[in-house]
Amino acid sequence: MRKFVSIAAVFMLLAGLVTLATSCTVPSRGGGGGGGVLIGVAMPTKSLQRWNQDGEHMKKQLEAAGYKVDLQYAEDSVETQVSQIENMITKGAKVLVIASIDGEALKGVLEDAAKEGIKVIAYDRLIRGTEHVDYYATFDNYKVGALQGKYIVEALGLDKGEKGPFTLEVFGGSPDDNNAYFVNDGGMDQLRPYIESGALVIKSGQVDMEQIAIKAWKSEGAQARMDNLLTAYYSDENIDAILSPNDSIAAGIVASLKAAGYGSPDKPFPILTGQDCDITNVKYLIAGEQSMSVFKDTRTLASKVVGMVDALMKGTEPEINDTTTYDNGVKIVPSYLCEPVFANASNYKELLIDSGYYKEEQLK
Ligand code: BGC
177 C-alpha to center of ligand 1: Å? Predict the structure, then answer.
């Protein structure tokens, strides 16, 4: 027995030495398997809350996996984003993770990336008009819109036979963002039957993206359009529901509604949708000024993208779950779609606080 133990001990010691020896000959690969390789992360703007979180989560998770990260924000300027990406190429980035400002504007710079053999992952927003985009990771954007549209249908009882008529206006996201069209389709597919039956009435008649899109999803643009709608069509009647595609647009709408006296017993806030669960808007949910939002856990998106980066660096296939939806005009980009989740005043605590996404004090 004793002899057996000592043989085992010698064996273990040898095994340990072998491990030590190999780990000394293999170059150190940092905290994870990233080996200090540079990854460029291009984000659209710091002015909307979510992108700050996306950038932070990407940087943290990539660094934890052993990569170096060049994280840049372009303040919604296409030229700035293009030159930031050029810089990443010059610095020797091996993978570019890009949340584009204008999905159509990166063709040239991505040709340069392709010449250097750099892989490209479109982050959240599809990059269009080029074959040089390898993968796409996002939330199911159609489903985001469907959650919004379905909410309006159910909140007004239309699915239970309510005939209204109820007044509705619809807003669209940025016209240069592919997501805006998917979100709009998801929402309108839910609402269309009731618009056609006359249970929902859009007094402005504005439904096309050219009429309803808000450039760069800006609150100011949404507020200005809502002011115009209220003045032109709702001076003698309250508006009952507003399909807003995201939270920054909903914030502009809330400002406009408040200025027009909504939020009183004879002018209650209309049903108002959103997306992102931005802190400002979660406060609106709690205060009853916005009805719902859609939670997209940017930690999950970041971890999927880090998984894609890892796979690309190892030369294996990244995990995808959609090969049909996201046609960028040149090819269908293999995608991973994360699941968006309905959020309102009743479930925000569980979704956002219990999960550690926000701290309770941030929502006060
Ligand atoms: C994103 C949304 C975001 C919007 C404005 C879209 O591409 O999917 O989450 O609200 O951009 O930043």
Answer: 8
